[in-house]
Amino acid sequence: MKKSVFTLERARRLAGDVWELRLSGDTSAITAPGQFVNLELPGKFLRRPISVCDWEEGRLTLLVKEAGEGTKELVRLPAGTKLNTLSGLGNGFDLAAAPEGAVLVGGGIGIAPLYGLAKRMLAAGRSVPAVLGFRSKEDAFYLEEFAALGAEVRTASEDGSLGTRGFVTNVLKELPDCRFVCACGPTAMLKAVHALPQITGGQFSFEARMACGFGACVGCTIQTKKGLRRVCKDGPIFHKEDIVWQTSP
Amino acid sequence: MADLSVTLAGVTLKNPIIPASGTFGYGREFADAYDLDLLGSFSWKGTTRDPRPGNLQPRIAETAAGMLNAVGLQNPGMEAVLREEVPNIARIFHGPVIANVCGFSLEEYAENCRALEEAEPVKILEVNISCPNVHAGGKNFGSDPHSAAAVTRAVRAATKKPVFMKLSPNVTDVAEIARACEAEGADGLCLINTLLGMRIDLNTKRPLLQNRTGGLSGPAVFPVALRMVWDVYEAVKLPIIGCGGVSSAEDAAEMMLAGATAVEVGAANLRDPWACKKIIEDLPGVCERLGVEKLSDLTGGAHHA
After folding, report:
1. Mind listing the pLDDT tens digit for each residue in B198-234?
2. CB-neighbour burial class of residue B304 (10 A; exposed 0-12, middle 13-18, buried 19+)
3. Contacts of B219 in chain A (CB under 8 A)
4. What is the ipTM of this complex?
5. Nearest CA in chain A to B202
6. Whole-model pTM?
């Protein structure tokens, strides 16, 4: 964990209420895709935890969905705004533990960390099949960016306006060889993917309301097969075999 | 350089700044961020006899100038704390530790205090009387003077270590509760715990917290805490640990002027893990500004000014 100041360089609306933010600052604490940063916003007591989409030395990319007052204000901050940031939070995806042929599965804003993951898997010489789901073609974003990396992207949309009609699970059923996933998206999507009989392993990125983001307040605790775990510090990535689907800790 | 040390019931702290229970775990996460030995003390996570998973998600909600939490006393239980956390604390912090203990019955409070008798780093017991009293239909022990007195009596008889009762602000007259604790031999008081509050999610039209209500903390509660510390200082002779919304060295000085001997910092740690370090670094400047050589001279100063 590192506290430093990031400068907002550019905010670009990608689709509907989803934005891409490019920032500059010290990214040295970020060690794995799937980690997050916690941004202090003017006038807000709690920071906003945002998944890292991509990073390189001195540069950070975040994809932000307007979910409430804070994120609505965040995406509209003028270029040049300085943001007090805690970076390098959470465990991130474990590339070494994902076998060759692992499929990246994302829904909506959940595709953000999969971009950074895809980039690093491709850099390691691995093939990267990806299944990305959206409500409709209008809501889709970052498809060109994934394709430009060299990922083999398949899509699904609820209304059928893009790719397979339905959900990412409909696409996964057409890929019977897919046994292992790296997934991020709404809880309903994670549950449905987790429940597919063909899926024998995977890494699932969780989301929770949190106060600190570094493990102190235990506000984001969930129950797992290994006991109570903090989404912010022990996660946000949890392995398939450890996951318990219940709202109760 | 000003003398920052303070003494709580015979226990000397190098400075009055104490991370508050529930915002600092058992110190592990913060020991990765900075050298804990710069702290006066720290108050560990409220610990019960049995392990508790806490409440359902969501447990956290933001408010104007603060936050609500409904963690629900999640903790690994006294046995695990003694086995795994106390030895680790001895490695990461060498000052006096404050152990926050909770209980659901008088017997459990006493048992938890006895269990800490041999825990070397623990120099003060902070008895959280905001836990629901299972024998009285879930009402908090701290919500009336008789049950607050009963817990004080039980823990006072169970330990040789100083006991500080942590008082709830969700009462009509906090001074009356404070006097009840003093009469039963409490060595000090800590106030305030969080204020009961709630938020409603406009998307679902339901309470945002699964527990419906949560405890409000952060800068929003500072003036309330300050007023209660003032009232209790007027009512009792016991040393007071002031707690509630402290975010700066200036806030800490206000707490001391209102009557606090030492000051706990809570929600500020969650927003900025280095908050206590910064406050401590700023204390000498505050001493200079206020013209005191000894920081402890501030305690209660506003009552005599």
Report:
1. 999 999 999 999 999 999 999 999 999 999 999 999 9
2. exposed
3. 45
4. 0.94
5. A68
6. 0.96
